[in-house]
Amino acid sequence: MGLVVRCESEECIAKYQACEEDKESNEHEEHKTQEENKNGNEESKTQKKLPARSLLGLSKPKALEDILQCTGNRPWLGPKGREKGACPYPPRFLERLASNLYFPKIASSILIPPFSDPIRRIIDDSHNWCFLTSGLTEGGEPDDIRLRHFAELNRLDLNRLRKVVRQKLRGEGLSTTHEPVERYRHSEYRALLEAQTRPDEEFVTRHPNMTDYEADTRSFFDKIVLVEKLAETRVLIGFSRINSPLSPDFERDNLCPLSRKPQQWLPGVRVYGEGIFLKLNERAVQEWFQNIDQRYNSIRQNLKHTYDKLNRTPRPLSPRFFLLHTLAHVLIRRLTYECGYGTASLRERLYCSEDSKHPMSGLLIYTAAGDSKGTMGGLVEQGKPGRLEPLLMRALEDSLWCSADPLCVESHGQGIDSLNLAACHACCLLPETCCEEGNRLLDRVALVGRPENRRLGYFSRIINQIL
């Protein structure tokens, strides 16, 4: 039998009331939680009943315009890389491994005199240059005692050292302003044709006697230069997305920057190799212009349309460029069978300009690979008299026929942005690393003509002999 003791003190009554209030509060919270869970389950059931939205058209430029807004974030520039102000462009949908997600913009240059002189590399060192220029005379000339001491210490020729130091003091070959790519390449073009080089330099050329080549070869080429040694510097100046860079110039418009603030340096690499330089016969080019100039009007319109989408002015485009570019491609394709280099190990460098102040009409095929393939040798041998003629003949024979003909030779526009005419993967295109233009602006009709009109080809005389 239990015994119940009742206490009616004020302290006990207050504790009893507090316990009852806590009990009621807990019951209310449990009821509220049950109601929220019930509503959440009903909402999730309702969402599951909604029809699935199709992803068709998601990759279109304005597909996400009403859904997402660009935040201006640029993660490759670090935590402070966000753009200032609102971004006016809508986000674009791209797959993570899409090929148009990243297009690097590479600028390259050939090391030419006076920069190819090994003495120049020595005096470019900041400590050496400080020593040589710390005692300049009143006329700005280097101190002869310091030059003599430096030449003896480093076993250098005193006269060459004095000449190179004076060149650097005068700033020869340097420019403090932005130069167009045509003017910049014209310096390389002149060096390939005229420079007197030494065997110990990083730019060594040899000029064979043109009379040693066959008459047909001399009628198409004014100059053939064998580049026994060259050094190419390649730097990354930016990158783009969705649209690849249109030309191998140094402009940074429509490019994503590599740093938040402009820097005095760029990531780059220097590679070494050899090459063959060909300069076209200007008289033969002018005669050929009369037959083919109107053929490229449609390509000019397509190029203008491509540039208009990027709000840029299209560059001038002449038939000479199609001739040089396509000739470089067919020679590279043939050289892979003749000299042992892989196709991806060879590169083209085009020198084309109609500017009266800086005329250019040549091409350089060279190897400047970073691995052992770039030093195998054999490319220069193919440019010597007796070897270049059969090489050119076989390359033109390969261009006469394509497995995609007649569709290829009769094309009015194919490839990227319809910027190729008679050129496809079966006859002219190369790996992306070989071509400066991304396999655009090609036409083998410029070389061999059409079956019904061989006069459209620059090498029509050789083609008639082959046929």
UniProtKB/TrEMBL annotation:
- Region: Disordered; residue ranges are 20-52
Q: Which residues form the MrfA-like Zn-binding domain?
A: 327-428
Which NCBIfam families does the annotation name? DrmB_fam (NF038324)
What residue spans carry the Basic and acidic residues bias annotation?
Answer: 25-46
Q: What protein am I looking at?
A: DUF1998 domain-containing protein
This protein's source sits in the domain of life called Bacteria
- Organism ancestry: Bacteria, Pseudomonadati, Planctomycetota, Planctomycetia, Gemmatales
